[in-house]
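hiii, so i know i said id send this last week but things got crazy w the move. better late than never?? heres the sequnce for the chain we talked about at the cafe, plus the structure i predicted for it. fair warning i was half asleep when i ran it
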Amino acid sequence: MTSGARTDRLVTWLFLGGAALVSLLFYRDFILHPDRLLFGTDMIGEGFPLRRFAVDELRAGRGIPLWTPYVYGGMPYVALLPGPLFYPSSLLYLVMPLYRAIGWTFVLHTFLAGGFGYFLARSFRLRPSAAAVCGTSFMLTGYVMSHLYGGHDGRIFAMVLFPLALGSLERALRTADVRWWALLAGAVGLQILTPHTQLMYFSSLALGLYLVFHLTARARRGEVREYARPVAGFVAAFALAAGLGAAQLLPTLGLLDHVVRAASERGYEFAASWALPPQEISALVLPDLIGSLPENYWGRNPFKLHIEYMGVIPVALAMLALVGSFAPRDGTQERRVVWFLAGVTLVGLLFALGGATPVHRLAYAIVPMMKSFRAPAMMMGVVAALVALLAGFGWQTVLAARRTGSGKHDPPGVGVLRPRVAIVLLSAPFLLLGLAAALSPAGLLDFAYHAWFPEGWPRRPSSELEEALRTGGLFLVGGWVLTLGVAEAVARRRVGGATVLVLLLFTVADLWRIDARYVRTVPAAEVLRRDPVVDRLAERLEPGQRAWALEGFRPNDFLYFRIPTPDGSQKFLLRWSASLLGGIRPAEGLAGRPVPLWALFDVRYLVARSGLESPLLEELPGGGLYAVRDTVPHAYFPERVELAADTADALRRTLAIESPVRETILERVQGAGFSDDGRVPQAGAGTASVVRYEPDEIVLEVEAERAGLLVVSEIWHPGWQARIDGVETPVWRANTAFRAVEVPMGEHEVGFRYESPAYRIGSVTSGLSLVLLLGLLVGPTLSRRRRWGAHASSGSDPEGTSDGSDGP
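okay and structure toks below
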């Protein structure tokens, strides 16, 4: 190993050690207090309940559940995108308390953001110090880190994986080594399992653009194979990635045919919602002008839980990369890479602005699947990674200028601030903005309010922003001047290249001061406490019976404590359930028709902090808990059975019935195992009791005095299969959304089991894809080591010399 290689390796290990130290210090309050959790708004409301359910099932030995009976009366579980169930770091869920495990995954991915950023820059053959700039810039970039406040771990994971994917793609295109194609597949496959499909899709668009750039700018010979091989490798990598993510991907795709979202979630207005408001481009370098948290934000978003801040020095170095790319000392190929990265960064930023520019409208019109996504601002995750990479190229430009005239008798470096006109023009807006914020924060806020927003804008900037804005202005001016000064001094060899440490430390301090606002720890006992009402419900509820919290609980709290409810807050709702519940949120639907719907959903108890007075309810001792007086059994034989003409007819007649026991409306659902004899089950008589109640399986003991239809207050789905004494039987859809089977006279065991062919096929596909991926990664490496061993005695390189960065 040469001395240069040893130095590069030392810098790499020093950077990784520094990244680990920064990660541990940044989360020190969480790490040092085992009784605390990392606060996240959506994590508490949705993440914890959904994941605890899976953890409980795994610890009970029942495996990954496919159905959850604890939300909306029952829903497919894996297909709901409940979180990174199949993501490697989720193994921590099984070895420590869930809230600690989730917190540690954030710590891990902050470190990985730095490591993957470093890998990305080295993949583009930047020097280790330039790679350290890229890794540091991306590790703490505001758009990634601020998602801690929302608890959006899957979103953070997907963004962190993008540098790994882009770096692997660059190495694969340059070397044609199958291992890099495999690593690209692994990175994209993990993005699918995060399971933030939208960010995976956005980053994949950037990867596709880079492939096109490679084909047009690098493939010079004009031979077909020069184009066919990269395209084939790219397609194969994404096919393998889809295989890796199939366990999550296929069930979700299958669910989309059966679910609804809010009626407003369609059309361009929906797709462009949650875009980056144009005024907030200022947040890239001055985060406190529009505000950065709900308590001081005064911009156009309905509420603000994140920031787009990228740091002063990364943006300044990115500018140097662009200016330096016009210098004659740069190679043509590197210059084109910088131009490409700058162009995609600009396009990504314009895309993030949504309907404010034509870019997103054009993508909406021509790019497949774009109509299914909203929040174009998520493209900022890709933009942040590209800015960090450009910052690395910026420092590489400084080092390249330093090498000019590096001979023994040559003059010192000519400097990097060339051409000066370009530097002045590009720096002026940033410096003027910073000076305005530092010298007159109140005046800048007043200017932004009157110039950037329509007259009468209801939100006004708070005076509390002034001090933070002044500090931000000082950081902007000081960081910009520091960057230009250090760059010029290093380029002219007045100081050593190790001076980059000054820029790295400033970058960490600058980004840290903003990121720290989004990291909060709270005592786990306060957030996840078990309300006494939950204990009372757990004692009273029998298998299948449900409770409904009118107030005092978050929508998914009952899910967290395994209390079945027709309420909830999830991304999707089954169409037939939605038609009864009145939309995505069921409260209005149940409140509008309490008597029949409470009975249909087998709602036995209501929870309310304030007193309820109704002849339908009986207040139980202890307060806050009410029993429903008029109930029906969880499984019952209705007195009359009628067949609906179609689903709309079934809904209309279901909402009109007085009691489901007296009358049941039936639907024959195509593909549910029915014969074509046209026969309708008759009304029967008898009793039924639940003897086993698990998420994926329900068993009842039935005594039918007269053969007929048995209705069960469980949500219908085509995945539910029924067997009577082990013999499969068709499952009818009763009263719009529930299950029913025809039972012969006598004593029988009726079993329901949820089957998901999509999950079964997907899990097998994921397993086989993982084996293939490991084979592609490990096999060539072992083969190469054997060849090296065979040639070690001769001192020759069996494959010729190559860039050391090409190895895995």
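btw The chain has a mean pLDDT of 90. thought thatd interest u
miss u guys!!
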